Input
Amino acid sequence: MTSMIDVIFLLLIFFVVTANFNVLEELLPTNFSFSGSTVTGIALPEQQILSQGFARIRITYENQTPHWQVEGQNCRSIREVRTLLGRISRTKNDLPIIIASDANVPFEHVIDVYDASRAAGLRNIQFEVSQNSTDK
Output
């Protein structure tokens, strides 16, 4: 009987040590396609991104409207950002993505870009923080 209790305690210790207590993060599926919307083809400066070793996405907010820039290329919608991120992921899926936003950008737009990056298969996502909120 004593040896059985020892085995049970050893199994208990084994399961506690090997357990993973991290909360799994999941992406929420969203569909932002509206009737009458169209998808446009946009170019991706792949050589520039691959040579510098990261891709920067800048989010600004003017006149209650978000504006996105992926490596200096303006995107008119989050759908175009998703398209570019998908192309980046197919080119190099371990490329670091740096999300930089102005201080007045609502956080939902930052999360949209983060979710689009994760949905594209990119896992190395970082946030750029400036010490002065008026830096561009």
